[in-house]
Amino acid sequence: MPRYCFCLQVKPERKAEYARRHREVWPEMRQALHDTGWRNYSLFLREDGLLIGYVEADDLAAAQAAMAATEVNARWQAEMAEFFTGLDGGPPDEGFQLLDEVFHLDVREGQ
């Protein structure tokens, strides 16, 4: 399954609240992510607010489009937008800066 990594910038002064909100992600948001093809999704937050996301999906653009069509995602993105810098008025899930994968250790049996 294809792997994707992205970054965004959380306002450093909002870091603790951002992390708290993600400990309490709404069940319907979790279900929508699952239903629209987001797999093995993780977020990592650095001290200065750099947010790194990792997700596996058959097609990230299709998974993003499917999420964009859900009502729960519209509510979540509206609430989360205030935590980020550099979005130019757009929702966070459209502000991903995708990173190129340059190495992946694929340990195979027998190696």
Task: From the structure above, extract its key features.
5-stranded antiparallel sheet; Alpha-Beta Plaits; 5 strands; 4 helices; 111 residues
Q: Mind explaining what this structure looks like?
A:
The protein is α+β, with helices and mostly antiparallel strands. The protein has one domain (about 5-100): Alpha-Beta Plaits (2-Layer Sandwich), CATH 3.30.70.100. The protein is about 35% helix and about 25% strand. It is built from 4 helices and 5 strands, in the order βααββααββ. It has helices spanning about 15-25, 25-35, 60-70, 70-80, and strands at about 5-10, 40-45, 50-55, 85, 95-100. It is globular, with a radius of gyration of 15 Å. The model has no long low-confidence stretch (mean pLDDT about 90).
How would you concisely characterize the structure shown here?
The protein has helices at 15-23, 27-35, 60-68, 71-80, and strands at residues 3-10, 39-45, 50-56, 84-85, 97-99.
Mean pLDDT across all residues, rounded? 92
Secondary structure tally, helices: 4
Number of strands: 5
Question: Quick one: biggest sheet?
Answer: 5 strands, antiparallel
**Class from secondary-structure proportions:** alpha+beta
Shape: globular
Q: What series of H and E elements makes up the topology? A: EHHEEHHEE
Strand content: 15-25%
- What CATH calls the topology is Alpha-Beta Plaits
Instruction: Classify the helix fraction into a percent range.
Output: 25-40%
| Count of domain modules | 1
- Distance separating the two termini: 21 Å
Low-confidence stretches: none
Radius of gyration: 15 Å
